[in-house]
């Protein structure tokens, strides 16, 4: 690979941006950064330390000193706080219920922005590129990335996917998907594509088709500067 490759992917909850971005990073042998996992780690740590997630000053201070380590190998991404692996814990219902409260704290976002840019740069330095996904990557964290994608899917498709993933009734996923998007969209714009951002609608695509759709956008954006896997050429 001859050029640093930063692929920024945003989108609402349940569009598949995390799982698809991870598969794309694997296909391209570059780093993978799940920025939502960073906010989840902070939310978990607040709960673990008895900090009220709505106490903005305490949460911001906690974030500043958080010993957060993100493993960015797309074959086995990891999340650790103070040396403890919390990959499973950050996906709990308790964390999902409060993550928007810490992520809408503007001091927290400023701190996360710095950490995320460092991690993206590290992926470029060590692996020639990073696929970073979240809600403000195309607009705030990496607005100059050569590839910027907004992944979308209908509400029905997103709720159905989450329902299948968690093995719960579709209606039970509403708060995790729709209500969380509403809270998150007070600080980030991830429902419509910013200028220069390519929309990939996965409503009617299966997982593999979504991966291929993203790889096609990558190829169109960076042409022959990268070595795409044979199936994506
Ligand atoms: N195109 C697709 N078709 C069907 N299922 C998919 C597709 N893309 C992803 N999925 C499945 O949907 C579920 C949700 O995907 P994923 O967690 O990647 O979404 P997300 O956008 O990152 O959500 P969140 O922002 O809430 O973390 C997973 O079980 C994933 O395997
Ligand atoms: N760039 C981002 C990414 C995530 N968030 C917040 O984190 C929450 C969890 O994200 P998941 O992708 O793991 O569901 C999300 O609900 C947002 O509150 C963010 O603010 N910016």
From TrEMBL:
<dbReference type="InterPro" id="IPR027417">
    <property type="entry name" value="P-loop_NTPase"/>
</dbReference>
<dbReference type="Pfam" id="PF02224">
    <property type="entry name" value="Cytidylate_kin"/>
</dbReference>
<keyword id="KW-0808">Transferase</keyword>
<dbReference type="GO" id="GO:0005737">
    <property type="term" value="C:cytoplasm"/>
</dbReference>
<dbReference type="InterPro" id="IPR011994">
    <property type="entry name" value="Cytidylate_kinase_dom"/>
</dbReference>
<feature type="domain" description="Cytidylate kinase">
    <location>
        <begin position="7"/>
        <end position="219"/>
    </location>
</feature>
<dbReference type="InterPro" id="IPR003136">
    <property type="entry name" value="Cytidylate_kin"/>
</dbReference>
<dbReference type="GO" id="GO:0036430">
    <property type="term" value="F:CMP kinase activity"/>
</dbReference>
<dbReference type="GO" id="GO:0036431">
    <property type="term" value="F:dCMP kinase activity"/>
</dbReference>
<dbReference type="GO" id="GO:0005524">
    <property type="term" value="F:ATP binding"/>
</dbReference>
<keyword id="KW-0547">Nucleotide-binding</keyword>
<keyword id="KW-0067">ATP-binding</keyword>
<keyword id="KW-0418">Kinase</keyword>
<comment type="similarity">
    <text>Belongs to the cytidylate kinase family. Type 1 subfamily.</text>
</comment>
<keyword id="KW-0963">Cytoplasm</keyword>
<dbReference type="GO" id="GO:0006220">
    <property type="term" value="P:pyrimidine nucleotide metabolic process"/>
</dbReference>
<protein>
    <recommendedName>
        <fullName>Cytidylate kinase</fullName>
        <ecNumber>2.7.4.25</ecNumber>
    </recommendedName>
</protein>
<feature type="binding site">
    <location>
        <begin position="11"/>
        <end position="19"/>
    </location>
    <ligand>
        <name>ATP</name>
    </ligand>
</feature>
